[in-house]
Amino acid sequence: MKFEIETEKWAAVKAKNTQAVIVYNEMLVAINDFEKSKNRPASELEEIDLLKKIEKNIKESTSDAISLNRQEVVDELTIQLTTIRKYLPKEAGKEEVESFIDDYVKDNNIIEPKQMGLVMKALKEKFGNTVDMKVAGDYAKTLISK
């Protein structure tokens, strides 16, 4: 994935797409820093996790810009989100995740909050990193604490 990002970055430089270049640089820095700290190449799953963190930061910045009525910033961040999402797997649908949690909790008689780890482990096994674990965890928590 890193080579593809580098290639696309140079295409964005040539096209003078500043916002895409910004996010390509951020992705490459995150991957390179990770690889230097681990003294090994990042796996594809690790790269995806790094990109998801960047995506999360951009989403938060977009939300802030919307609340401050800064449309030009929202537009720039939207370009960055579009760029980074090319490299992320499609997220599992909310309904699909909630249905899985409902079934898992019922089928495994999950009734106590201390059993939350079982639900989260099953989610990770089923969906990998295509699910927002915080959102899924919040849903499971409300279901279990009823």
Explain what this protein looks like in three dimensions.
- The protein is an all-alpha fold and 146 residues long.
- It has two domains: 2-85, Orthogonal Bundle (Hypothetical Protein Yqey, Chain: A, domain1), CATH 1.10.1510.10; 94-144.
- Helices cover 76% and strands 0% of the residues.
- The chain is built from seven helices and no strands.
- Helix 1 runs antiparallel to helix 2, helix 2 (18-38) crosses helix 4 (71-85) and helix 6 runs antiparallel to helix 7 (133-144).
- The termini are far apart.
| The CATH homology group name of the largest domain | Uncharacterised protein YqeY/AIM41, N-terminal domain
Task: Please identify the top-level CATH class of the largest domain.
Answer: Mainly Alpha
Mean pLDDT over the residues? 90
Beta strands, count:
0
Task: Give a quick rundown of the structure.
Helix content is 76%, strand content 0%.
List keywords for this structure.
single chain, 146 residues, mainly alpha, Hypothetical Protein Yqey, Chain: A, domain1, 2 domains, 7 helices, 76% helix
Strand and helix layout:
Layout: H1 2-14, H2 18-38, H3 44-67, H4 71-85, H5 94-107, H6 116-127, H7 133-144
Helix pairs in contact: 1-2, 2-3, 2-4, 3-4, 5-6, 5-7, 6-7
